[in-house]
Specification:
β5 and β6 form a beta hairpin. α3 packs parallel to α4. By secondary structure, this protein is α/β, with parallel strands linked by helices. The protein has three domains: 270 residues, no CATH class; 35 residues, no CATH class; 155 residues, IlvD/EDD C-terminal domain-like (Glucose Oxidase, domain 1, 3-Layer(bba) Sandwich). The longest helix is centred in the middle third of the chain and has 20 residues. The protein is globular, with a radius of gyration of 24 Å. Bound molecules: FE2/S2 (inorganic) cluster (FES).
Length: 563
């Protein structure tokens, strides 16, 4: 039985007569076939993020059914409701500009509708951050349920998983190593089941971080999308949501600065996606907390990479699951984390660390005394080109390029890049530094175009990597010596807007520096490359006027804590 203020008559529609509003709502709800008994129960909302435009969420209808089973078994009324669904590869100009829209949608619909707790179901790249951000701001009891990763497939005996292998084969195709017929066959074999990308991309990084942050049930982040355990996890999440109705525990009660710091360490230990830093900063910003890029370097130097997954390693998410999953990682990484943080079940993180006798596949989740690398996968860089920071995934980069001074070959924006990168007359050598400007949050929503292609004429000569610099992002499934998230971006007055082809740029990973070597007087005289015309109307206009820079998570300024 729902308590006063809960259930179907919670948060009444405002007609100026609450009793009339309750009577009308009960009447309309009963038209859906619910008995009076059912309508007296506490309500658990379940986000419906299935969409014909979201392959990663193909399993959502089955998950929602299983969540409902759990809610019903625990004495509640489960009601699913639609929210925005973001299928990474189906959105123009980039899914990133819609993350905040989805977060607002989730926040407002969770708050506006009469639910006493909510199960936030999602998985594809931007959906877990958006669900979490919305869940924080709605401030109702909530639990996250990830859709889970895809299984791998095979092409001529070779194991394939989206989407690191997508890029690997595409690079071979561009270099002329494989032909149309083969790339066509690979295209049909890359993504063959429901679920999110099969490697340690953004979706997997976020799911693992959210489990360590205590926002989903323990042991559930890595279960493959098509495994029966995923349905059992969904059912258990429904039961857990009913416990949350009782306890009233919200994300605001769970997430502290220690929770955010644990997530950063986890991201480093799994050599996770660069995008996850932006999403975590946005999540932290909703609570007045912070991902400190200065502190990131010190944390990174002290946190070993333990998980051997593509794009930096060898294995796939299904291997991580069978290797021991987040529980195995927690056991190995435990001493680096603050285990006093709270979780959605009310337990401490320490309570979720499996006992010492459990099996862990040490090839996939290494022990701390035999790490894949002794320091973390990501670092931040500062200097006149990035006074507020930039990110390098050093674990996915070529160390031979870490101390380098080189000539800039500059592209003024995405159109310029696609027009000229494969021009046989492009003045470029493999020792140059490719620079892309006007691809940041304000310019065009910060697409994943920081993975600049190697110019075709160099790719055909066998060049596999070059130092590349931009204010864009890159896919969590990509790799290379790629400096991203330069802040401030070119379109927000960053020095990047003044870089010209032929300028010298210096990178020192040792010193964490990124500098444009042009004297001050000359820079003062230069006219910056103009930003692309800003969209004024609709969502993109609102986004453009209010989006923050990468180090603040690219959230809208008016959605942050304290606004
Ligand atoms: Fe959905 Fe990669 S496309 S997670």
């Amino acid at each position: 039985m729902a308590k006063t203020g809960q259930g179907i008559t919670g948060g009444l529609t405002n007609y100026g007569d609450p009793r009339f509003a309750a009577y009308l709502r009960r009447s309309f709800a009963s038209s859906m076939g619910y008995s009076k008994t059912m309508l007296q129960k506490p309500i658990v909302g379940i986000t419906w993020t299935a969409s014909g435009f979201n392959n990663c969420h193909r399993g959502v209808p089955d998950l929602v059914e299983a969540v409902k089973r759990g809610v019903l078994s625990a004495g509640g009324l489960p009601l699913e409701f639609p929210v925005t669904s973001l299928g990474e590869v189906f959105l123009n100009p980039t899914s990133m500009v819609f993350r905040n829209l989805m977060a607002m949608d989730v926040e407002e619909m969770v708050r506006a509708q009469p639910m006493d707790a909510v199960v936030l179901v999602g998985g594809c790249d931007k959906t877990l951050p958006a669900l979490t951000m919305g869940g924080i701001s709605a401030n109702k009891p909530a639990i996250v349920l990830a859709t889970g990763p895809m299984m791998t497939s095979r092409y001529q005996g070779e194991r394939l998983g989206a989407c690191t292998d997508c890029r690997r084969f595409w690079a071979r195709y561009r270099a002329g190593d494989i032909e149309d017929k083969q790339i066509d066959q690979v295209e049909g074999s890359l993504a063959t089941t429901a679920g999110t990308c099969a490697v340690m991309g953004t979706a997997s990084s976020m799911a693992i971080m959210l489990e360590v942050m205590g926002l989903m049930l323990p042991g559930t982040a890595a279960i493959p999308a098509v495994h029966a355990d995923r349905l059992r996890a969904a059912e258990a999440s429904g039961v857990a949501a009913m416990e949350l109705v009782e306890s009233g525990r919200t994300f605001k009660d769970i997430i502290t600065q220690a929770t955010i710091d644990n997530a950063v360490k986890t991201l480093l230990a799994i050599s996770g996606s660069t995008n996850a830093i932006i999403h975590l900063a946005a999540i932290a910003g909703r609570l007045g907390l912070k991902v400190d890029l200065d502190a990131l370097n010190a944390i990174s130097d002290a946190t070993p990479v333990l998980v051997d997954l593509k794009p930096t390693g060898e294995a796939y998410m299904e291997d991580f699951f069978y290797a021991g999953g987040v529980g195995g990682l927690l056991r190995r990484l435990g001493n680096h984390l603050d285990l006093t943080t709270t979780t959605v079940t009310g337990e401490r993180l320490a309570d979720l660390v499996p006992s010492e006798d459990g099996w862990i596949d040490s090839k996939v989740i290494r022990p701390v005394d035999n790490p894949i690398r002794a320091d973390g996968g990501l670092i931040s860089l500062f200097g006149n080109l990035a006074p507020k920071g930039a990110i390098l995934k050093r674990a996915a980069a070529d160390e031979n390029l870490f101390e380098k001074t080189g000539r800039a070959v500059v592209f003024d924006g995405l159109e310029d890049l696609s027009n000229r990168i494969d021009d046989p007359d492009l003045d470029v050598t493999e020792d140059d530094i490719l620079v892309l400007k006007n691809a940041g949050p304000k310019a065009c929503g910060m697409p994943e175009s920081g993975y600049l292609p190697i110019p075709a004429k160099l790719a055909r000569k066998g060049v596999k990597d070059m130092l590349r610099i931009s204010d864009a992002r890159m896919s969590g499934t990509a790799y290379g010596t790629i400096i991203l998230h330069i802040s401030p971006e070119a379109a927000a007055g960053g020095l990047l807007a003044k870089v010209q082809s032929g300028d010298m740029i210096r990178l020192s990973v040792k010193e964490r520096r990124l500098e444009l070597l042009v004297d001050e007087a000359e820079l003062a005289a230069r006219v910056p490359t103009p930003a692309p015309p800003a969209e004024k109307r609709g969502w993109l206009g609102l986004y453009n006027r209010h989006v923050t820079q990468a180090e603040e998570g690219c959230d809208l300024d008016f959605l942050k804590a304290g606004y």
